[in-house]
Amino acid sequence: MAAFVAGVEGGGTNTCVMIYDAEARLLAEMRSADTSNLYASISERNEPEVGVDGVVKVVGALLRDGLASAGCGDAKLAVVGMAMSGVEEEKAQKELTNAFKASSFGPMANDIYVDNDTVGSLYAAFPDGGVALIAGTGSNSLLVNPDGSSFQCGGWGWRLGDEGSGYSVGYAAVKRCLGHLDQGFEESPYPVEATWNAVKTKLGIECLKDLITYFYGPDFKKATVAGICEVVCRLAREDGDELCKAIMSDCGFNIGRHVRALASKVDPSLLKGAGGLGILCVGSVFKSFDLLKGGFLRALGCDGQGDTPVLSEWTLYTLRQSAAGGIAYLAAKKAGLRFPYDFDSAKTVLYHHRGA
Fold first, then answer.
1. pLDDT tens-place string over residues 130-177
2. What burial class does residue 111 get, using C-beta atoms within 10 Å of its C-beta: 0-12 exposed, 13-18 middle, 19+ buried?
3. Which helix (H) or strand (E) holds 66?
4. What is the pTM of this model?
5. Domains of the chain
6. 254-286 pLDDT, tens per residue?
């Protein structure tokens, strides 16, 4: 009987399921606007968290529909890999695994493997490990070495960290304007008018005092603050706004600091392949790498300003497809299955650096 493998990428805004045959050929891809983030609210109306049962329902239905779409509705999956947002801890991973096996969808698969979405993204790009950089609404980074050892930097959320994230850019724009306009408490070296107008429009406020109502009131949403990043990028790129360019350069520096922090933990074998250390970039902030580049290079000592480079050669990549493929590969590997996944076609080069 043919062995079918499935991969699931579950995030805070949508869920993707990919069904493969034993030769890692994609048979079906299913997407849903339903969240499968374990701790996400169902909507912006602060409804209850999705929870384990909600995740199982969303994922199970997509797997069922995916098998039907692939023309193998009665087949049993050899293994299902799930790369899920909100399951960072082993306890949550086991809870979701057991809940799926005990549900009506359990008989669909011989085995289940659950990990977080960052791991799924990493293995969609690199078969033996590398670095994953996350810079979307929040930020995080993960190094996985060939021996399976892993090290994380970041991922502390918007209250404690998220440096280099979309939220951090939006927050920096607010703080730069606030410091300058608050009787010059912290004067900006650049004009703030354009940035302040953009902040007011995005947050739906009219004056400085309205910041208190927004940030401490019931209407606060970190995603809205993160949305300021898009406007900052536009002002920097199209209008040459110096304040916005500085904010984005600082963002690039903070993203680079994640790599710098992990560099000493990198297994030497990961530095010897073509392109040096592979670094996967995930998240909308990387769409503006042209604005991040200077700060990123500075953080790694690769800007030619005299600092010793942290790494002599490295390559930034972005994914061409869902992390569902990566978690399918990893799940098949852990199940002892041959799964010839095409890593080269799954990613594209964003930037390559090689020192003198």
1. 999 999 988 999 999 999 999 999 988 889 989 999 999 999 999 999
2. middle
3. helix 51-69
4. 0.87
5. 4-125+320-342 (3.30.420.40), 166-248 (3.30.420.40)
6. 999 999 999 999 999 999 989 999 999 999 999
